[in-house]
């Protein structure tokens, strides 16, 4: 019997990678739903190629355009996630949630009741809405697997292992400015920050890698997913990006999780549970590469945003939404050349130190609307007050 699959965000990198894996094993999969926000032309092509009956296009303008140009009457085009029960008569086997940004939170929470297993690649959903996601996972007995290479590696390393954890280290490549003198950071251009040495990623996450803000987010994710405290988590610079996580147990043993810089590896391992097919990877990890791991501590003078970890509350709260939303806005301003690279750190600290926002360390989200409304307010505040 074919495994039934849903892909939320099939036109982004993770979604495309999953489709490329399925394309080599079509006889074993049936895709029931694909979604996108804007790129209706690519979404329709994907639906045709993979014989998908249902697609969702969130933005009304692009939904209307898709309805107008669609010639395939077998494709059911929807504009929102309100009628999922009409698509699914029973739970699907696997869902990939790869919609980028906080726009992926509501669809992720909604789809959980309709799937046996969900793989989440959306950082923002986990950082801001983990408690809501976890509630739905438990309520519907849905299996969860993280997709991010670091969190997938931790998850895989902890499977069927009850040994108490002493410390978990997430690795960081150091991005494009690892070896750049601090004095030159004030003059870096957008094009410089987008030149990641190891990974092909979207613009936003590439800038986060250049500032190391992505590691702050990953620490928050790891804390929430694996029910740890921040003292059990740390970051090590590893320029080659082969080691993705290091687990140090209280019994003295250390486990290192390594794979080449190809996201198809964690994606494939979330999709298949038993027999895993061989992949033609762009770069295979040679054992000789592990002869010199080059692990080192982060230079906090060069990457001061990492110290935001010290501002994080011990309990999950809406404060994480402020961090995500403020960073999104400042990165967007940098990409549009409205602020300088070093301004991101200065402005992040400025807004997080505001009394108006620090109170959210003790306020918790009861529903997705709480998160989305606060996110919109943070962006409005930054733009209207020119923070």
Report what the structure shows.
By secondary structure, this protein is an alpha/beta fold. It folds into 3 domains: 3-147, 3-Layer(aba) Sandwich (Rossmann fold); 149-310, no CATH class; 313-387, Rna Polymerase Sigma Factor, Chain: A (Orthogonal Bundle). It is 39% helix and 15% strand. It has 15 helices and 11 strands. It has helices spanning 13-23, 40-49, 60-69, 84-87, 105-111, 123-140, 149-158, 190-193, 203-211, 213-225, 264-271, 319-335, 343-352, 355-358, 368-384; strands at residues 3-8, 29-36, 54-57, 76-78, 94-97, 117-120, 143-146, 165-172, 233-237, 243-249, 254-258. The strands form 2 sheets. It has a 7-stranded parallel beta sheet, sandwiched between helices. Strands 9-8-10-11 form a 4-stranded mixed beta sheet, covered by helices on one side. Helix 12 (319-335) packs across helix 15 (368-384). The chain is globular and about 60 Å long. The model has no long low-confidence stretch (mean pLDDT 92).
């Amino acid at each position: 019997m074919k495994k039934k699959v849903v892909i939320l965000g099939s036109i982004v990198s993770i979604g495309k990678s999953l489709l490329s894996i399925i394309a080599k094993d079509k006889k074993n999969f049936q895709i029931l739903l694909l979604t996108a926000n804007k790129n209706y032309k690519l979404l329709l092509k994907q639906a045709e190629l993979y014989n998908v009956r249902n697609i969702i296009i969130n933005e009304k303008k692009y939904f209307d355009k898709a309805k107008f140009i669609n010639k395939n009457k077998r494709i059911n085009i929807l504009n929102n996630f309100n009628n999922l029960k009409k698509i699914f008569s029973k739970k699907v086997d696997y869902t990939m949630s790869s919609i980028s940004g906080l726009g992926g939170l509501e669809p992720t929470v909604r789809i959980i009741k309709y799937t046996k297993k969900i793989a989440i690649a959306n950082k923002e959903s986990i950082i801001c809405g983990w408690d809501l996601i976890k509630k739905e996972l438990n309520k519907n007995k849905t299996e969860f697997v993280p997709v991010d290479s670091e969190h997938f590696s931790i998850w895989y390393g902890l499977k069927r292992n009850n040994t108490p954890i002493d410390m978990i280290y997430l690795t960081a490549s150091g991005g494009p400015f690892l070896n750049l003198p601090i004095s030159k950071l004030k003059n870096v251009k957008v094009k410089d920050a987008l030149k990641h040495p190891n990974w092909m990623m979207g613009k936003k996450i590439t800038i986060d890698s250049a500032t190391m803000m992505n590691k702050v987010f990953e620490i928050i994710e790891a804390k929430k997913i694996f029910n740890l405290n921040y003292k059990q988590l740390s970051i090590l610079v590893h320029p080659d990006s082969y080691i993705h996580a290091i687990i140090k147990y209280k019994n003295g043993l250390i486990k290192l999780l390594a794979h080449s810089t190809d996201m198809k590896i964690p994606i494939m391992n979330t999709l298949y549970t038993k027999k895993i097919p061989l992949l033609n990877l762009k770069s295979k990890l040679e054992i000789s590469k592990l002869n010199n791991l080059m692990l080192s501590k982060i230079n906090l003078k060069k990457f001061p945003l990492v110290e935001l970890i010290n501002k994080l509350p011990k309990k999950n709260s809406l404060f994480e939404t402020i961090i995500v939303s403020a960073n999104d806005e400042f990165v967007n301003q940098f990409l549009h050349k409205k602020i300088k690279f070093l301004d991101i750190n200065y402005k992040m600290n400025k807004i997080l130190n505001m009394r108006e926002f620090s109170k959210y360390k003790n306020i918790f989200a009861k529903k997705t609307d709480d998160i989305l409304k606060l996110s919109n307010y943070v962006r409005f505040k930054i733009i209207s007050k020119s923070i």
